[in-house]
UniProtKB/TrEMBL annotation:
Residues 85-520 form the Solute-binding protein family domain. This is Nickel/peptide ABC transporter substrate-binding protein. GO terms for biological process: peptide transport. It is found in: Cell envelope. Keywords: Signal, Transport.
Length: 637
């Protein structure tokens, strides 16, 4: 039975903290607005963190490290319940026109902007979203999330305004100067203080799922103007309208979130204060600090899991976490390599266009063995057989991966040594005729700062060479830069075969097509000159574009996108690998099934709705709670 006793004896914890140096340092309270969050019996959730926030200006960043704060201090038009359903947020209701090109939102009464001390600054009004749209789409502000106004959901005039403002900054980038566009030309407008209107260039059935993204969050125009370049520079230069206020933040020391006394939905905020203490060794010392009673959550690393589970104190507190389908990991073939001659890029270029060669590699990878690096007890739960993770999107209870012929892959393991060798033998004859020399060098880089990736790559190297033979291939494992890996390796094409990832931006299959589009092109297949690869690419583009035009029937839309995804799997353009590893195993006094949930965006980072318990769940309690949450019925014996 799950331990349900709420944490009542917070006084003891306060006394412990007073004896433990940096864990006890609290900010001075300059007024009494936030007294409740610091009372002796306040419910306080204590954690450690090792990755520091880089930007508090939520309109320019979408980094998960930054949105841990944003998700808790800024509310959006829509919210989520604990099962991933969209529910009213700052908008209490909405409607759209039949063509889904005009969306009207009606704001709640009494929503307040407050400062870091809880003082009321003013009302949240419809113009706050207009101001945000103008800011995000002004190229001078260098936001990394502007693309959400022109990807999937296309807000009228947004991209045109961005292009115009960018041309003023970088005229050399434009052969023809864009025509002048005013901020008022962007299709976001306030009919009155409580009525907000979005106008889109084309129908968007998933528009509601876009609205909790950082670039669609509100900002007070008056405050933004008065703050100037100081907006978001520190916690004192931001206004808050969410469940919590960032009351204190000293980088590389501590973050303190306190319950917002003016929050519109404060009755659903059960934790009074969240204290996050910085420690670069958080991953190493977390369990020890949890055992000492200093923190309420610790991540248990895979290499220490077996040892901790053998110890009664720890085994009673350790449990898994919800599989994270917000990111998909997959291995991509590079069709336009640009690495040094030592690793024979031209030979790879000839080999990779051969479909049987790609299929031989696909069938040689035992993903469960490779993923046991991260999940030693049940690696199968991380395996992803499609690009789109199962559980990411569904209609009326039917998962997207079960639509059309994509269902063939969703329930099938591609690992098959016999098939791998058949494909190898077919490929070998064809490759010899194409002038390929053997063994074919396969450059597989990894990021040394990512825990487990090195071991994973060497595991796959062993699998490939054992299955296909070292006379056929030679896997070259190389450590990339631990800083700037994305630009230095992936985006520069300095790999043959490498793990990449993509995260969903909204709730629609279209979001999972972006890594294969020309603008993002993880595999550089749009640059490939081979006629067969070009043909597959062109067919995929047509199928994807046709699917995106279907806006009046979700089932047909999903069927069409599933057909496009099936195509790239049929031709082994990509090798699906896993869903996001996430926290894996933890000791955590929060019940994650109480918190908001979404397979995209920031919802899962919120503390709203969570209670703090005396103890963490054990494995059995967690499994029972998970089955209830996921509506999984026990099989009859």
């Amino acid at each position: 039975m799950m331990k349900k006793s709420l944490k009542a004896s917070a006084l003891f914890m306060v006394m412990v903290l007073l004896l433990t140096g940096c864990y006890a340092k609290l900010p001075d309270i300059e007024n009494h607005t936030l007294d409740d969050a610091y009372r002796s019996d306040a419910v306080v959730y204590n954690t450690l963190y090792a990755s520091e926030v880089t930007n508090l200006n939520y309109l320019v960043t979408s980094s998960p490290v930054d949105t841990v704060i944003t998700a808790n201090v800024i509310d959006a038009l829509v919210d989520y319940d604990n099962e991933g359903n969209i529910v009213p947020g700052l908008a209490e209701s909405w409607e759209c026109t039949e063509d889904m090109c005009t969306w009207v939102f009606h704001l709640r009464n009494g929503i307040k902007w407050v400062d870091y001390e809880g003082n009321v600054y003013g009302e949240v009004v419809a113009d706050d979203w207009v101001a945000a749209a103008e800011y995000v789409n002004n190229a001078a502000n260098e936001t990394d999330c502007q693309y959400m106004y022109c990807t999937g959901s296309v807000v009228k005039g947004a991209q045109e305004y961005y292009d115009y403002t960018r041309s003023l900054l970088h005229p050399e980038e434009y052969d023809v100067k864009p025509k002048k566009v005013e901020p008022s030309d962007i299709g976001v407008m306030a009919y009155d203080d409580k009525t907000l209107i979005y106008k889109l260039d084309k129908p968007c059935p998933f528009f509601l799922s876009v609205l909790s993204y950082t670039s669609y969050l509100p900002v007070s125009r008056k405050y933004l103007k008065s703050s100037g370049t100081m907006f978001g520079k520190d916690y004192k230069n931001v206004l808050y309208n969410g469940a919590y206020i960032l009351h204190y933040f000293q980088p590389l020391e501590k973050q303190i979130l306190v319950k917002n006394p003016n929050y519109w939905d404060r009755d659903k905020v059960y934790i009074d204060r969240v204290e996050n203490v910085y420690d670069s060794e958080a991953a190493t010392i977390g369990v020890e600090r949890y055992e000492e009673g200093l923190i309420d959550k610790a991540v248990v690393s895979a290499d220490k899991l077996e040892r901790y589970l053998s110890m009664r104190f720890h085994s009673d507190e350790i449990h898994g976490t919800i599989p994270d389908c917000s990111y998909s990991y997959f291995y991509v073939f590079n069709f336009a390599p640009s690495y040094n001659e030592e690793n024979e890029p031209e030979n790879w270029r000839k080999a990779v266009v051969n479909e049987n060669f790609r299929k031989a590699i696909m069938c040689s990878i035992d993903r469960e063995e490779a993923l046991s690096v991260y999940e030693p007890y049940d690696p199968g739960k991380l395996v992803n057989n499609t690009v789109t993770p199962p559980g990411a999107i569904s209609i009326d209870g039917k998962d997207y991966t079960k639509f059309g012929k994509l269902s063939y892959y969703s329930g099938r393991d591609s690992y098959n040594k016999n098939d791998a060798r058949i494909y190898r033998d077919l490929a070998k004859r064809q490759l010899k005729e194409a002038g390929v020399t053997f063994p074919i060098k396969i450059l597989m880089p990894y990021n040394p700062s990512v825990v487990g990736w090195k071991q994973e790559v060497f595991t796959i190297k062993k699998q490939l060479e054992h299955s296909l033979g070292t006379d056929f291939i030679e896997v070259v494992v190389e450590a990339g830069s631990d800083t700037g890996f994305l630009n230095a390796v992936q985006r520069s094409g300095k790999f043959s075969f490498m793990k990449c990832r993509w995260g969903a931006d909204y709730e629609d299959p279209q979001t999972w097509t972006e890594p294969f589009e020309e603008e993002d092109d993880y595999s550089f297949w749009h640059q490939c000159e081979d006629e067969k690869v070009k043909e597959v690419c062109e067919i995929w583009e047509k199928q994807k574009d046709n699917a995106s035009e279907i806006t009046d029937n979700e089932n047909l839309r999903f069927e069409a996108f599933a057909e496009a995804e099936r195509l790239i799997l049929d031709h082994a353009i990509v090798v699906p690998f896993s869903i996001m590893i996430g926290d894996g195993y933890v000791m955590d006094k929060i019940n994650e099934f109480e918190r908001e949930y979404s397979s995209y965006g920031m919802a899962k980072q919120r503390y709203k709705g969570c209670h703090l318990y005396e103890d963490s769940m054990d494995m059995e309690e967690y499994q029972k709670a998970y089955k209830e949450w996921a509506h999984i019925e026990d099989e009859e014996e």
